[in-house]
């Protein structure tokens, strides 16, 4: 039985052992395979042992040990180039330049994603490695990196500056170590992962006619042990309540959208709070922003609120959706009943986000290879659920996971966000091993 923990942006102390664990024997790897028939466990273990022992892979591990300062330099450069929601273009162009400098031709697609392909030997399968370009911070946020010892602080430095540089490091060592692969690798710096970006970059990848993707690994934030295997679904609304408006004194008695919105939020909070504590998967709700109106002495002609609801269980998420809509309807009816003049209020719920729930089963080849890659580097995987770019492939039945890019982080999604270089190279080694094992090594000892 695997226990899933809800996703957290920062990681606790890493349980690391000496890198001598890298030379893991086949027998130990067999014991680490999860919930599989013995024959399949033996196959995955033998495969990973061959990957670990291959001279080009050993060279890749050596190269990772030389990249600490380079990855930090990349991370600072990328972080200090703002990428607010829907304005990732400048960072995308710079990331494209870094890929070219690393030796990879690339393109920027119509959604704004940066794409580069590492060709395999031509069997047609593709493994996507994805890290998102965007941050949650609005235009004008100070993103200058402040540095003290091994701590680097700036909005977005971990989420997802670290993920981007982990993908660059992977590309560099695959090229410099001359690693031959059976399957193609599609490197993707995606747009729109955060907030109301609504995963638009990865949605575009999975459009009809998009590139073939057979497996998917997202690199998001810090940490070396986190493996997201289940996606938390979400529904987001911008609730608009509209009325005729008027002077606060002269038009008193006209239905007030602000009063109705306050009433709707009150009813929603009451009923949703009772629901989320009932037995079942974790479910959450949040009213994140409220706005509207023209002045303190005017009855508003419109007020609005943005609402976020989440659960890994689609049925519980649907129930929160019902509660929200019922709360708004009740508030509108009651507020209209109080008016003495003017037209009635109307509500216009605008869905501004939908992230589907999904799961990658533990016995899939991808999860097994990710697990064995971490174990080979002395890391015990920490299986979790979360909301990332992997939501889209998981919901479509494509094996997908999300892993961290190394180090430790704190204050994600805040102006106090920091990243600490705490043995960060181990996560890069995890990523190199899981990528090579999943894409398939052309030659092994």
Can you describe this structure?
Helices cover 36% and strands 23% of the residues. It has two domains: 5-232 and 357-439, Aminopeptidase, CATH 3.40.630.10; 233-355, Alpha-Beta Plaits, CATH 3.30.70.360. By secondary structure, the chain is an alpha+beta fold. The strands form four sheets. Strands 1, 2, 3, 4, 7, 8, 9, 16, 17 and 18 form a ten-stranded mixed beta sheet that branches. The protein has a four-stranded antiparallel beta sheet with strand order 5-6-20-19, with helices on one face. Strands 12-14-10-15 form a four-stranded antiparallel beta sheet, covered by helices on one side. It has helices spanning 26-32, 38-53, 55-64, 68-79, 89-102, 157-176, 200-205, 257-276, 314-338, 365-376, 391-395, 425-439; strands at residues 5-6, 107-108, 114-118, 126-132, 146-148, 151-153, 184-190, 215-219, 226-231, 233-242, 246-247, 283-292, 298-299, 302-311, 346-355, 358-359, 382-386, 400-403, 408-410, 418-420. The chain is built from twelve helices and 20 strands. The protein starts with a strand and ends in a 6-residue tail after the last helix.
């Amino acid at each position: 039985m695997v226990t899933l923990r809800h996703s957290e942006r920062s990681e606790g102390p890493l349980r690391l052992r000496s890198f001598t664990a890298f030379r893991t024997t086949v027998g130990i790897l067999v014991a680490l395979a999860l919930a599989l028939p013995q024959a399949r466990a033996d196959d995955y273990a033998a495969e990973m042992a061959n990957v670990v022992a291959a001279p080009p892979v050993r060279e890749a591990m050596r190269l990772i040990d030389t990249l600490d300062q380079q990855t930090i330099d990349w991370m600072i450069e990328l972080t200090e180039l703002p990428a607010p929601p829907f304005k990732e273009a400048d960072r995308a162009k710079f990331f494209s330049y870094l890929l070219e400098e690393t030796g990879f031709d690339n393109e920027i697609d119509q959604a704004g994603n940066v794409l580069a392909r590492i060709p395999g030997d031509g069997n047609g399968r593709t493994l996507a490695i994805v890290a998102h370009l965007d941050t949650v911070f609005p235009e004008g946020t100070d993103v200058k990196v402040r540095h003290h010892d091994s701590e680097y602080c700036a909005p977005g430095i971990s989420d997802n500056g670290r993920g981007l540089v982990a993908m660059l490091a992977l590309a560099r060592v695959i090229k410099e170590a001359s690693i031959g692969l059976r399957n193609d690798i599609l490197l993707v710096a995606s747009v729109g992962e955060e907030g109301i970006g609504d995963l638009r970059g990865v949605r575009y990848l999975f459009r009809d006619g998009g590139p073939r993707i057979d497996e998917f690994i997202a690199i998001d934030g810090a940490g070396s042990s986190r493996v997201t295997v289940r996606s938390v679904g979400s529904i987001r609304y911008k609730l608009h309540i509209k009325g005729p408006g008027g002077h606060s004194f002269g038009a008193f008695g006209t239905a007030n959208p602000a009063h109705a919105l306050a009433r709707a939020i009150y009813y929603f909070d009451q009923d949703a709070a009772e629901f989320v504590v009932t037995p079942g998967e974790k479910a959450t709700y949040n009213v994140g922003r409220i706005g509207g109106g023209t002045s303190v002495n005017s009855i508003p002609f419109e007020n609005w609120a943005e609402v976020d609801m989440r659960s890994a269980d689609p049925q519980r998420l649907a129930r929160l959706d019902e509660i929200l809509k019922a709360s708004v309807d009740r508030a509108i009816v009651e507020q209209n009943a109080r008016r003495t003049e003017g037209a009635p209020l109307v509500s216009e719920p605008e869905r501004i986000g939908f992230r589907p729930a999904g799961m990658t089963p533990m016995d899939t080849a991808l999860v097994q290879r990710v697990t064995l890659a971490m174990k080979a580097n002395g890391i015990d995987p920490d299986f979790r659920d979360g909301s990332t770019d992997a939501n889209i492939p998981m919901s479509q039945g494509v094996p997908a996971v999300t892993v961290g890019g190394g180090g430790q982080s704190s204050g994600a999604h805040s102006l106090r966000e920091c990243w600490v270089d705490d043995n960060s190279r181990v996560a890069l080694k995890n990523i190199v091993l899981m990528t090579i094992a999943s894409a398939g090594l052309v030659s092994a000892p």
